[in-house]
Design a protein that fits this description.
The protein is of the alpha+beta class. The chain has helices at 15-21, 60-72, 76-86, 109-114, 117-128, 144-153, 177-195, 214-235, 257-274, 281-300, 307-311, 315-322, 331-341, 352-375, 382-394, 398-405, 408-417, 435-438, 441-451, 552-555; strands at 424-425, 431-433, 457-459, 468-470, 475-478, 480-483, 486-489, 501-504, 508-520, 527-539, 557-565, 569-572, 576-578, 580-587, 591-598. Strands 2, 5, 8, 9, 10, 11, 12, 13, 14 and 15 form a ten-stranded antiparallel beta sheet that branches. It has a three-stranded antiparallel beta sheet with strand order 1-6-7, with no helix packed on it. A two-stranded parallel sheet has the order 3-4. Helix 2 (60-72) runs antiparallel to helix 3 (76-86) and helix 9 runs antiparallel to helix 10 (281-300). The longest helix has 24 residues, at 352-375. It is globular, with a radius of gyration of 28 Å.
Length: 611
C-alpha cells in the first residue's frame, strides 16, 4: 500500500447533487436559490434575475464561517436556523485546502442545458404548454406539430452521431442529454418549418387552445404560479407602488412567433458556443450575452422559467476558472455509467458488485471488437450476417453506437490521438480496384500531378515519355476511414453509406464517393497518397433570405441546392474537416433546398462558411 496525495479543486455534477455535496441548500429555497449570488427564487419572473450587472455576490468567507459553525454545533435548532437563514450546511469537502465553496461546484452544462435542463423547459413548457404548436382547429389542417414531426423524420444523420426519438417533438418519452443536444442542433430550422416563419408578419401570434384542453389547463396553472411569484417579488422591493402589482388576468404569456423565434436563435447559438472544445474569454462572454438576452426576453414575455435559467448566467465564471466546459462536462462518464448500468448484479454487494461491473465492462468491449471484426470482413457469409444481427440485438443495438459515441476509454483514446502524427486510421480490410474502368483515372492522375509535381507522373496508356507512368491498377479502396476521431465512409460501399457526407475546405459540404490509397511508383521507401473522391454540394443563391440567416454562422447552418452535386473531384483525406446532418426543406418562393447542420464542436464556426 502506498499513500497518494491528490487535490480536489472542483466537482462537476448535476444541480441537486452539487448543492448537497458542497453544503448548500436546495435550489428551491426562496432566499438561497443560488450559491453564488443573492437572487431569490421569486425573482425568476424578473429580467433582472438574468442581468449580471445587477447581481450581488455572496461572501464565500462568511459562507465558510457559517458552515463550520453549523458543523460544530450540537443543537439541532441552531443547525436548522443556519440552514434556513444562511443557506449553508457543513460539508466535509470544506476541510480541503483546494476547495473554494461555490466556485468548486461549477454549473455543468450537460445537465444544465440538455439533461433535459433548460432545453426541455423551453420546448415542453414555454412552447408546447404555451400553445405555440396549437393549430386553428380546422378539419384536415396540418398543425405546426405535424410539420415539426415531419421535418425531424426527414433528417439524415451520420450513423455515429447519435439521434433522438421523434417523440421528443411532442414532449413525450424521457430523452437523454445526447438526444436533447442533437435536437437543439436542428431546432432553429425545425421551428422555422413548423411555424412557417418565411411568411409570418412581425405581430403574428399562435392561436389560443380550446377551453378545457390540457394545454389550456397548463396555461392557467402557469399563470397562477407566475402571479404568486410576481407578488412575492414585488413585495421585496421597498420602492414598489400599487400600480406595480398586476392582477391575475393581466399575466399572460406572449404567443408572438417572432419574439419566441428570436430567443430560440439566441439560445441555440449560445449553447453551441459554450459547448465548443476551444473557446476564448471573448467568445464565452458573447455566448453569455446571447443566452441572457433570451432569458430576459422570455421573462418579460411572462414565460415560466426555472432556477437552471438563472444558473446559466454563471457559466462564464466557471469557464474562466477551469477552461472550456467541454473539458469538464460529464458526457463520457455518463456513457460509461450507461454501459455499467446494463450489468445484472443480482443485488450482490459487499465488494462483489465491483467485480461484476468490471467483467460486464470488458464483456461489452470484447463484443464491440468482435462486431467490428465481423463487420469489416470483405466477404461476409450469410452466417456472418446472422451473427452480426444476433450480437447487435444482444447488446440492444449498442455496441456500434457505444463504440462510436464514446465510452470513457474511447474518449480518453480520442484525446490522446489528437496529439499523434497518425491522424488517419484505415480499417484492415480493403479492395484492390482499377481506376480506368471506373472512369476516374484521369482525375486521380491530375490530382497527383498538381500536388506532387516533383515525381513527373505520366499516364500508363503507353505514350512515350520521360516521366514515371502511374499505374491505374492495384489501388486500395476502403469502405471507411477514421480521421482525427471522426469516421467517414464511401457512398458506394454498404459499410460506408452511413458516414459518406462531410465538410472539406472549411465548411463546404460534400459527398464522399470513394476513399483511396495510391502508391507513387518507383520510390524507395514507397510513398502512399491518401485521397477521397468527392462531389460538392452547390450553394443556394438565396442563402441570406431565411429566418435564421443572420445567425447561420454561429448555428453551423448552411443551405444548398436540393439534390444537386458537382462533378467528381479529388482531395486529400486531411482536407475532410467535419461531419454534418442535413434535411430537405421547402421554403416559399425558393422551392426545395438542402439545409446542413454542422456536428463539429472543435471550435467556433468559421465566418463566411459558404464562401
Amino acid at each position: 500500500m502506498k499513500m497518494v496525495h491528490v487535490a480536489l479543486p472542483f466537482g462537476p455534477m448535476d444541480t441537486p447533487a452539487r448543492l448537497k455535496t458542497a453544503g448548500f441548500v436546495s435550489q428551491n429555497s426562496e432566499d438561497h436559490m443560488c450559491p453564488c449570488c443573492d437572487a431569490p427564487f421569486c425573482s425568476l419572473v424578473d429580467p433582472a434575475c438574468f442581468d449580471r450587472t445587477q447581481f450581488h455576490y455572496r461572501d464565500s468567507a462568511k459562507q465558510l464561517k457559517w458552515k463550520f459553525i453549523h458543523g460544530h454545533s450540537d443543537d439541532p435548532e441552531v443547525r436548522a436556523t443556519i440552514a434556513e437563514t444562511k443557506g449553508v450546511r457543513m460539508s466535509i469537502l470544506d476541510r480541503l485546502p483546494t476547495w473554494n465553496g461555490s466556485l468548486s461546484i461549477p454549473t455543468e452544462i450537460m445537465h444544465l442545458f440538455w439533461g433535459p435542463g433548460t432545453s426541455g423547459q423551453i420546448h415542453r413548457v414555454i412552447l408546447i404548454e404555451g400553445s405555440m404548436f396549437t393549430g386553428t382547429g380546422k378539419r384536415s389542417e396540418v398543425t405546426p406539430m405535424d410539420r415539426l414531426t415531419g421535418f425531424l423524420e426527414s433528417i439524415w444523420w451520420p450513423n455515429n452521431s447519435g439521434r433522438f426519438q421523434i417523440k421528443i417533438a411532442s414532449g413525450g418519452e424521457r430523452p437523454k442529454a445526447d438526444e436533447w443536444r442533437n435536437f437543439m442542433r436542428v431546432y432553429p430550422v425545425a421551428i422555422a418549418v413548423a411555424w412557417q416563419m418565411w411568411s409570418r408578419n412581425a405581430d403574428d401570434e399562435a392561436p389560443y387552445p380550446k377551453k378545457r384542453s390540457k394545454i389550456q389547463q397548463a396555461i392557467v396553472k402557469s399563470r397562477k404560479l407566475l402571479h404568486k411569484r410576481r407578488i412575492k417579488n414585488i413585495s421585496r422591493d421597498e420602492d414598489a407602488e400599487a400600480d406595480d402589482y398586476l392582477a391575475l388576468e393581466d399575466i399572460e404569456a406572449s404567443h408572438n412567433y417572432h419574439s419566441h423565434y428570436e430567443n430560440i436563435l439566441r439560445y441555440c447559438a449560445a449553447t453551441r458556443i459554450f459547448a465548443s472544445r476551444e473557446i476564448t474569454p471573448q467568445e464565452a462572454i458573447r455566448a453569455e450575452n446571447f443566452i441572457l438576452e433570451a432569458f430576459q426576453s422570455w421573462a418579460q414575455m411572462n414565460c415560466h422559467l426555472t432556477p437552471n435559467f438563472h444558473f446559466s448566467s454563471h457559466v462564464v465564471e466557471y469557464i474562466n476558472a477551469y477552461g472550456p466546459a467541454y473539458a469538464w462536462w460529464v458526457f463520457p462518464y455518463e456513457r460509461a455509467i450507461g454501459v455499467l448500468g446494463k450489468a445484472n448484479h443480482n443485488g450482490h454487494g459487499s465488494g462483489e458488485v465491483e467485480g461484476t461491473y468490471m467483467r460486464a465492462w470488458w464483456k461489452t468491449m470484447l463484443i464491440q471488437e468482435l462486431l467490428t471484426h465481423l463487420q469489416e470482413r470483405p466477404d461476409q457469409t450469410e452466417q456472418d450476417q446472422l451473427a452480426i444481427c444476433a450480437l447487435l440485438k444482444a447488446v440492444r443495438g449498442g455496441a456500434e453506437a457505444d463504440w462510436q459515441r464514446g465510452t470513457l476509454m474511447n474518449y480518453i483514446a480520442l484525446l490522446s490521438d489528437q496529439h499523434e502524427s497518425a491522424r488517419i486510421v484505415f480499417p484492415k480490410q480493403f479492395k484492390l480496384i482499377s481506376l480506368r474502368p471506373l472512369g476516374f483515372y484521369a482525375i486521380v492522375l491530375q490530382f497527383l500531378r498538381l500536388h506532387f509535381p516533383e515525381f513527373n507522373l505520366t499516364s500508363d496508356a503507353g505514350e512515350a515519355s520521360d516521366g514515371i507512368p502511374f499505374n491505374s491498377q492495384g489501388v486500395r479502396s476502403y469502405a471507411n476511414v477514421n480521421i482525427g476521431g471522426a469516421k467517414y465512409g464511401s457512398f458506394h460501399h454498404h459499410r460506408g453509406k452511413g458516414f459518406c457526407y462531410g465538410y472539406t475546405r472549411g465548411r463546404h459540404a460534400v459527398r464522399v464517393e470513394y476513399i483511396l490509397s495510391v502508391n507513387i511508383p518507383r520510390q524507395d521507401p514507397p510513398i502512399s497518397v491518401n485521397l477521397a473522391l468527392i462531389r460538392c454540394f452547390e450553394h443556394h443563391p438565396q442563402d441570406a433570405n431565411h429566418p435564421w440567416s443572420l445567425w447561420a454562422t454561429d448555428l453551423g447552418i448552411a443551405t444548398w441546392k436540393y439534390n444537386v452535386l458537382g462533378s467528381l473531384e479529388a482531395c486529400h483525406l486531411d482536407d475532410l474537416s467535419g461531419q454534418f446532418a442535413f434535411a430537405p426543406v421547402h421554403a416559399p418562393r425558393m422551392g426545395r433546398l438542402w439545409v446542413t447542420f454542422s456536428l463539429d464542436t472543435t471550435s467556433q464556426e468559421p465566418d463566411n462558411s459558404n464562401h
